[in-house]
Amino acid sequence: MPEPLQTLKTMLFIIYLSLWSVLGSHGQSTIGTTSQTFVTSGEDNGQCTTCQFRQQSKLMRLHSIKSQILSILRLEQAPNISRDTVKLLLPKAPPLQELLDQYDQNGGVSEDEEQGSSETIITMATEPQAITQGEGMPKCCMFSLSPKILPDSILKAQLWIYLRPAEEPTTVFIQISRLKVPSEGTGRSRIRSQKIDVNAQTNSWQHIDMKQLLQSWLKQPEINFGVEIKAFDANGNDLAVTSAESGEEGLQPFLEVKISDTAKRSRRDTGLDCDEHSTESRCCRYPLTVDFEDFGWDWIIAPKRYKANYCSGECVQKYPHSHIVNKANPRGSAGPCCTPTKMSPINMLYFNDREQIIYGKIPSMVVDLCGCS
After folding, report:
1. Rounded to two decimals, what is the model's pTM?
2. Where are the domains of the chain?
3. Taking residues 235-248, what's their average pLDDT?
4. Signed CA dihedral, 365, 368, 372, 373: sign only
5. pLDDT given for residue 33 in this prediction
6. Which of 372, 359, 357 minimizes the C-alpha distance to 81?
7. What is the pLDDT of residues 69-111, one digit of tens each?
8. What mean pLDDT is predicted for residues 140-162?
9. Do 187 and 225 form a contact (C-beta atoms < 8 A)?
10. CA 303 – CA 102 distance, rounded (Å)
11. DSSP code at position 142
């Protein structure tokens, strides 16, 4: 082969190697970059999906709480009671203040309240049944008893009465009579009487024990026609407020019943607790504060807010391949879900749809423990 031709082939081969080296390195670099970009994007997308799923779990928990409260209280919708109406109807009485004192300054549930072993039910007085409303019969007071109250569970039952101020120092005779149907004779029988001394121009709340009468009503509901309340001073003036007349709103009689809570609290099992900044992917309990004012629920007197918590995270599948399916489509997986495995109640003071004040226990309001099931 002539030397010039051999030299030309050698030069072309060198150029070919140079071009292959440049193009090959560039191609590999491009592929590597694309691969790295894909991996990074996949990680970011996974974190984003987890964040979105957690936010969705939180919103579902809030919606569940609203529906659950209305269902437990047997309300088709939230009572239409404004903040001004609450101030107007809320009894200005010592036991109500004691109940409100159980909540902290921010309106949340205190630690002592969470561990309470009794429940208080407050029932406002209404007009007696029409069957007792003969001529000269009183317009007060009837009390509808909660089915939660059982004869043997009553720790305390008190009737609270507000006395108007007397014009001068005097002795007041408080009389409580059980109402009966007119066919039974006089229509009333005295069951309690109490004598107290009051100062001039001094109003006051007085309470009378009603445990025995309440137990008899529970054992024989057919004899519960309510009671008549009288409080006469030395001049024969009735000082007892028995209805919400103008200027006396929130001063009508009510029944305070404290019952024992038979449900025993056990020590909380261990479980994962996380915060909103946690990178934990497993099933975990996250903090969530429910604010009833954000709901526009002024009919709930207390607590105004409480720690509800919610569950979110992944659950280990029974079979290895199920975990891959769950990662690819976490919401479409039929495997175990991260759900509450232990819940506890809260005590709530609220108005029902008849503008009666109830203080009772609402079950399953706080997530104590999360698990896979």
Report:
1. 0.60
2. 75-117+263-373, 118-260
3. 86
4. negative
5. 34
6. 357
7. 999 998 999 998 888 878 777 777 777 777 777 776 555 555 5
8. 90
9. no
10. 9
11. B
In the structure encoding, which two tokens stand for residue 69, read together?
């409260």
Distance set, CA 67 to CA 7, 153, 364 (Å): 89, 29, 12
- Could you give the CA distance from residue 194 to residue 211 in angstroms, rounded to a whole number? 16
Joined together, the tokens standing for residue 162 give 């507000």
CATH code, 75-117+263-373 = 2.10.90.10
CB 302 within 8 A of CB 107: yes
Amino acid (1-letter code) at residue 70: L
What is the per-residue pLDDT across 185-198, written as a single tens digit (0 to 9) for each? 566 788 888 999 99
Residue 296 is predicted with a pLDDT of 93
Classified by CATH at the fold level, domain 118-260 comes out as Jelly Rolls (2.60.120)
Amino acid letter, residue 21: S
Nearest of 365, 361, 358 to residue 96 by alpha carbon: 358
Question: Which residue's entry shows tokens 């105004």?
Answer: 304
Q: What is the token pair recorded at 87?
A: 């101030």
Do residues 259 and 154 touch, judged by C-beta distance below 8 A?
A: yes
Torsion of CA 161, 164, 165, 166, to 10 degrees: -100
Largest separation between any pair of C-alpha atoms in the chain = 146
Q: Dig out the tokens for 260 from the structure.
A: 């024992």
* CA–CA distances in Å: residue 305 to residues 86, 287, 290, 292, 365: 17, 13, 5, 6, 12
For residues 100 and 113, is the Cβ–Cβ distance under 8 A?
A: no
Helices (H), the chain: 3-72, 83-89, 94-100, 111-114, 211-219, 292-295, 320-328
DSSP conformation letters of 47-78: HHHHHHHHHHHHHHHHHHHHHHHHHHTT-SS-
The CA distance from 230 to 176, in Å, is 7
Tell me the C-alpha distance between 337 and 56, whole Å: 14
CB count, 10 Å around CB of 67?
Answer: 10
For position 328, what pLDDT does the model report?
54
Residue where the block lists tokens 């429910």: 290
CB 205 within 8 A of CB 250: no
Residue 51, amino acid: C
What separation in angstroms does the CA of 247 have from each of 206, 231, 240, 241, 340?
19, 19, 14, 11, 48
